[in-house]
Q: What sequence folds into this?
C-alpha cells in the first residue's frame, strides 16, 4: 500500500521483506499503482528465485457493491497485474456497513466469491472491516470467510475479543497497520518513548499482538528500513514465541500505569455503555483519542484521526465532538460517572484543527 513511489521502491521492499522472513504480501487495486509495481517485482522474483516465489502468499481485495460481471473483470485484472494464475486470498475490501455484508453473503458478491473459488482463481475468501463490532460478529458467524483483517492495536484493543473468537473458529486474523493506524508508532513522541523504555513502542505493539495469537501483522512498509524491526523481532530462527518476555510485560504494565496516572479520573474505560447518543456522537472513539493525547502524548496521531472525521465516508466516524447537544442522556449510563459533555468539549479544543487560512478571497 505504501511502496508506491516507483517499481524500484516496490522491488526493494519485496526483497527486504523476503530477507526479513516475511512471506505474506497484501495489496489492493485501491492502492494506486501498488498491484502493477508488485506484479513487476513478483515476475522478476519468479524468474530469479522460482522456489521463493512459490512460497509467497498473496492477498488482494475487491471493494464491495459491484455487479457479478464487474467483479469478475476486476478479479481477472488483479491476477493479470500480479502475474498470478491464482490468488491465495481474496478479501472484501471494507466490509464496513450492513449492505456490504449483504452484498458478500447474499448478493452479487456471494455469487462472485463462489465463482472465483469454483474457477480455482482464489484460494480462500475473507474481508477487511473498519465497521462495528456487531457487523464483524455477523460476518464471522456467516461461515463464509476464512480470514479477516481488523483494527487491533496495543492502544485500541476493543476488537481483541472478536479476534480471539475468530481464531478459535480457525479464521485467520490480520492486524491492520499496527505501526500507522495503531498510533503512528514509527514516529513516537518523547513521552511514549520514555514510558516504553528500554523498548521501542512499535516493538511492544508488535509483540503485544503476536502474544495475543494474531496470525498476521500488516507492516505497511514504504521502504526497506521499515522492516528492520520486524526482522529483528523474528530473529534468525523465526521460532514462534514467546513473544513477550518478563521485561517487555513489565514495560507494558508501566506504560498502562503511566497513561492511567496522567488521565486520572478523566480516563474513559472504553466500555461503550454510554451509547447510543441521539446525535450520533461516537463517544468512546472520541474519548479514546483524548486518552491517547493526554495519557500517552499521541497528540499528532489523535489530531490526524480527529480531523479525518466526516471526511472518510464509511471508513471512519461521521460526527465529531461538536455534535454533542449536551442532552445528558449518556451521563447515567457511564459506570465511571465521567462528565462526558465536558470531556467531549475538551477533546474538540485539544484536537480540532484550526480553520485553514484561505489562499484566495
Ligand atoms: S450529552 Fe452529548 S454525547 Fe451525551 S448523549 Fe447527549 S448529545 Fe450525546
Ligand atoms: S460509558 Fe463512560 S467509560 Fe464507558 S465508553 Fe462511555 S464514556 Fe467511556
A:
Amino acid at each position: 500500500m505504501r511502496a508506491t513511489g516507483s517499481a524500484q521502491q516496490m522491488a526493494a521492499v519485496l526483497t527486504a521483506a523476503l530477507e526479513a522472513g516475511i512471506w505474506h504480501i497484501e495489496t489492493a487495486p485501491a492502492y494506486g499503482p501498488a498491484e502493477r509495481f508488485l506484479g513487476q517485482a513478483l515476475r522478476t522474483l519468479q524468474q530469479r528465485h522460482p522456489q521463493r516465489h512459490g512460497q509467497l502468499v498473496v492477498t488482494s481485495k475487491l471493494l464491495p457493491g459491484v455487479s457479478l460481471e464487474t467483479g469478475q473483470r476486476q478479479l481477472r485484472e488483479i491476477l493479470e497485474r500480479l502475474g498470478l494464475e491464482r490468488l491465495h486470498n481474496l478479501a472484501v475490501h471494507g466490509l464496513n456497513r450492513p449492505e456490504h455484508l449483504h452484498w458478500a453473503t447474499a448478493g452479487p458478491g456471494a455469487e462472485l466469491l463462489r465463482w472465483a473459488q469454483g474457477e480455482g482463481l482464489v484460494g480462500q475468501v475473507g474481508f477487511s472491516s473498519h465497521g462495528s463490532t456487531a457487523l464483524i460478529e455477523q460476518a464471522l458467524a456467516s461461515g463464509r470467510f476464512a480470514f479477516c483483517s481488523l483494527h487491533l492495536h496495543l492502544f485500541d484493543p476493543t476488537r481483541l475479543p472478536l479476534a480471539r473468537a475468530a481464531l478459535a473458529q480457525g479464521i485467520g486474523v490480520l492486524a491492520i497497520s499496527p505501526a500507522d493506524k495503531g498510533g503512528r508508532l514509527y514516529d513516537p513522541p518523547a513521552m511514549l518513548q520514555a514510558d516504553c523504555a528500554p523498548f521501542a513502542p512499535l516493538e511492544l505493539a508488535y509483540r503485544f499482538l503476536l502474544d495475543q495469537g494474531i496470525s498476521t501483522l500488516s507492516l505497511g512498509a514504504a521502504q526497506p528500513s521499515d522492516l528492520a524491526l520486524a526482522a529483528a523481532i523474528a530473529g534468525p530462527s523465526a521460532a514462534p514465541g514467546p513473544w513477550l518476555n518478563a521485561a517487555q510485560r513489565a514495560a507494558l504494565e508501566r506504560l498502562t500505569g503511566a497513561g492511567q496516572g496522567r488521565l486520572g479520573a478523566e480516563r474513559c474505560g472504553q466500555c461503550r455503555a454510554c451509547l447510543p447518543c441521539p446525535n450520533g456522537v461516537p463517544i468512546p472513539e472520541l474519548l479514546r483519542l483524548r486518552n491517547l493525547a493526554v495519557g500517552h502524548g499521541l497528540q499528532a496521531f489523535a489530531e490526524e484521526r480527529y480531523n479525518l472525521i466526516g471526511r472518510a465516508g464509511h471508513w471512519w466516524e461521521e460526527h465529531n465532538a461538536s455534535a454533542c447537544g449536551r442532552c445528558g442522556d449518556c451521563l447515567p449510563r457511564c459506570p465511571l460517572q465521567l462528565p462526558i459533555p465536558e470531556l467531549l468539549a475538551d477533546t474538540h479544543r485539544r484536537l480540532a484543527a484550526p480553520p485553514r487560512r484561505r489562499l484566495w478571497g
